[in-house]
Amino acid sequence: MTNQPTRRRTIRSFVRRASRVTNAQRRALDELWPKHGIDYTAHELDICQLFGRHAPIVLEIGFGNGELLVSLAAANPARNFIGIEVHEPGVGHCLLAIETARLTNVRLSRHDAIDVLRQQVPDAALSRINLFFSDPWPKKRHHKRRIVQPDFVALLVKKIEIGGLFHVATDWADYAEHINAIVLKNKAFTPVEENGPARPETKFELRGKRLGHEIWEQRYRRV
Fold first, then answer.
1. CA-CA distance, 198 to 39, in Å (whole number)?
2. Could you write out the three-class secondary structure of the chain?
3. Radius of gyration of the CA atoms of the chain, in A
4. Catalytic residue among 115, 123, 135, 174
5. Domain 38-222, what fold?
6. Domains of the chain: which residue ranges?
7. What is the pLDDT of residues 112-170, one digit of tens each?
8. For residue 29, is pLDDT > 60?
9. CA-to-CA distance for 179 and 53, rounded, in angstroms?
10. How far apart (Å, rounded) are the C-alpha atoms in residues 172 and 144?
11. N or C: which terminus of the chain carries fewer CB neighbours within 10 A?
């Protein structure tokens, strides 16, 4: 009997929740995905062809039900938005919202964000990456599952254009310290203040506030 090589299990920063997809969300996934969705392949995307125009690209990792993504896209028609989310109910909800708002500047991916960034997003293609209230994995033994790690930050450096932003928020103080320490170890990012209209609050943010959690938010400039 020959020894088979052991395959190292990839550590994912998310867990696929067994959530119920409503009939409306299922119809959206079936009927609207071809119009607004990006199927995953291990090939680089032609961003201009994807949107039919050249415009700054904003990518949101883990958009939840898509309310913030849709709101930002509606308020910024001169920008293109790509949202990544693995949970089907949220993707279906977001597809319905995109269609209701008649938006043409949003595309969705339902695959692992790391794979999408590595394989599909061209280098220096993004003007901004938003990461709002990702899973903090509060138990110490799970910290390795946190998406913000040195390799992830190095990947952001490749994909965000010079002068672009990494915008991150969390309601877990320990995770905030972790994020800031990891990002600032990479000299390609520097913290900045950004003036402008406040972003809409997310569902997870409002839940954190109800629990008495302080909201931490930071923007890092790609330099």
1. 32
2. CCCCCCCCCCCCCCCCCCCCCCHHHHHHHHHCHHHHECCCCCCCCCHHHHHCCCCCEEEEECCCCCHHHHHHHHHCCCCEEEEECCCHHHHHHHHHHHHHHCCCCEEEECCCHHHHHHHHCCCCCEEEEEEECCCCCCCHHHHHHCCCCHHHHHHHHHHEEEEEEEEEEECCHHHHHHHHHHHHCCCCEEEECCCCCCCCCCHHHHHHHHCCCCCEEEEEEEC
3. 18
4. 135
5. Rossmann fold (3.40.50)
6. 38-222
7. 999 999 999 999 999 999 999 999 999 999 899 999 999 999 999 999 999 999 999 99
8. yes
9. 34
10. 16
11. N
Amino acid at 87: H
Determine the Cα–Cα distance for residues 174 and 182; give it in Å rounded to an integer: 12
Structure tokens of 148?
Answer: 């913000």
135 catalytic per annotation = yes
